[in-house]
Design goal:
Layout (H helix, E strand, L loop, with lengths): L1 H45 L6 H5 L17 E2 L18 E4 L39 E12 L2 E12 L7
Length: 170
């Protein structure tokens, strides 16, 4: 009887350990997929002409350089990651490019500490209201990946500050 109890306890401990190891491995693999996707997106952003980055990756399709709805936009899906659900139970895009402003305009006077705003974005040494999407010198960018796991929702962010070197050519 004691041997059966000891065997049962040992089996349950081994089973729990194996389950935890498998879950941990899956979550690590998902984190690698998320990190690679975020870095790839950031590299794609860096490969674009700096003067077009805001228009290509903001939420407003009406300002797309090649015509409405032709740019990359702010949202994308990451293959291999389960999407997080919104408050209505609908899946949200797994990836998002976050830019300062309201999604359509770039205003350096907004209170957005995650982007270091308010901040001089156009290099005139003043922080003034108005749209700076056509004349920014620096542009803070964050790529966020959100996905669902068995242990809950996960988020990974990669941020950078882009500098428009085209403005320094002269």
């Amino acid at each position: 009887m004691i041997a059966v109890i000891v065997g049962t306890v040992a089996t349950s401990i081994l089973s729990a350990s194996l389950t935890a190891a498998v879950t941990s491995t899956v979550i690590r693999q998902q984190r690698v997929v998320a990190a690679e996707s975020a870095v790839n997106c950031m590299e794609q952003i860096r490969s674009m002409p700096m003067s077009l980055v805001f228009a290509l990756f903001n939420e407003d399709p009406s300002d797309d350089p090649s015509g409405e709805g032709t740019a990359f936009g702010a949202f994308f899906d990451v293959e291999g990651l389960a999407p997080v659900l919104d408050e209505h139970g609908q899946p949200r895009p797994t990836g998002q490019v976050l830019l300062p402003g309201d999604g359509a305009t770039l205003d350096e006077t907004l209170d957005q500490p995650q982007f270091g705003l308010p901040r001089d974005l156009d290099g005139d040494l003043k922080v003034l209201p108005g749209d700076r999407s056509d004349d920014y010198l620096v542009l803070p960018v964050t790529v966020r990946i959100e996905w669902r796991t068995k242990l809950g929702d996960r988020t990974l962010e990669v941020s950078t500050l882009l500098v428009n070197l085209e403005k320094f050519d002269g």
